[in-house]
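In this supplementary section we document a worked example of the pipeline. Step one takes a protein sequence of length 494 as its only input; no multiple sequence alignment statistics are reported here. Step two produces a three-dimensional model, which step three serialises into structure tokens for compact storage. The input and output of this example are shown verbatim.
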Amino acid sequence: MVNGKSTILIIEDEKSNIDVLVGLLREHYKIIVARDGEQGLIRAQAEPPPDLILLDIIMPGMDGFEVCQRLKEQPHTREVPVVFITGMNEIRDETRGFEVGAVDFIRKPFSPSVVLARVVTQLSLQQQRSRLQKLNDVKNRFLGMTAHDLRGPIGSIHGLSEMLLNMPMSDSQREKFLSTIFKASGQLLTLVDDLLDVSVIESGSFDLNDKPGDLSMLVRERLELAQLAIEKKEVTVASHLEETPNAHFDHERMAQVLDNLISNALKFTPTGSTISLRSGMRDQQPFFQISDQGPGIKQEERGKLFLDFQKLSAQPTDNEKSTGLGLAIVKRIVDAHGGRIEVEDGSHGGALFTLYLPSIASRNDVAEKPTILVVDDEFSLRLMLSKAFQQAGFTMVGEAEDGLQGLRLFKERRPDITLLDLDMPPPNGQECLQQILQIDPHACVVILSSTQDAGVEADCLHQGAAMFLSKERPYSEIHESVLGLWSAFIKARA
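The serialised model returned by step three reads:
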């Protein structure tokens, strides 16, 4: 995919067919053309490879069957879907095509709507396969790291317990062994709890039971529970906790966030130094802040901070163990609340974490449950956006997989906000935007796009889009931007 556009390689020897296909597809895709099989094989070796190949069967020299077979033999192009374009109608030809690796056929003379439908379907399937492959790679990495982290404490427990059973030893030695086993089992329990949390969150069954509450009271509660660890490390806690009556959160999950942040600060704070905590309201948002006097976090490592299994160069001051999952879980929970978490250098060294939550007041500024329509031709993206906005309190009135369906749903249901993909088969996002604003000149339409073209963004905003957002942004940022936009719309209408 180049600049947000999928690349299609057309291997065809008839100029009239090439002209029709290029004219039909070039608005939405990057097109590469080859006039015979040899040239097609060469152009398929481009970096990155094409996302889809449209391949004629009957060509001079090397025919399409041989080209397809050779494409499937080369690692660089093995996974690229091939769609045959042919006037051949025999069952044996179709069977042979599938045997050499084709995924579909388009019959000549072809219908433009059929070509577009087949292309969109295959590109969508290819994108889903690519995502699944990435998820599988993450899973394998996840399992490898998990096995590595489990092996250490399990080995300690197994070895020490065997020695306890089979070796004579003094009471003091026995106590030391038991203490080590206790610590190792605690590490295992922490790792398993973290893995279960990640599994629940990633499975989509992560539901919040958020209610109004005072975040500062929860901070005091978690500090009391951490008191033993604080005293053991001889750390001073300086706290300035003001009431946060307008907070809105899941008590159990937010307790988990605070426990992680307090535990993290303790790990990296040297014995005898100070951890500072602060809470209150800032810009009408409840916030919690914690800083330590440890080594801090290098600027170049901050992008990895909230990712799974990240162990950075800074080391705990008392050899405390870490799963590398704590801050990743924190980020997921905060995102699910519609909040945000930031990290910066502390005023006295160390790291400063600041957590912001949406307030009841800010939620009330927005209509109780603003309705939202998602129009995008990528199923997985529609699914993720819908779930993210539903968790944020929006009411989904529908999802559309193309512009025509999106326009019909808009007319029928008149959503408060329409999330509109830019790059769709006709009518595309800009065309849909024009028609939506003709139906309702005050409609709140947010354009979502992979393009980085400032000219396209300017065109959309000039036409009347309320906002232009990149699909590459995290879902929490998309949600936060849309929520802020809707709040502004409500105030403007008041």
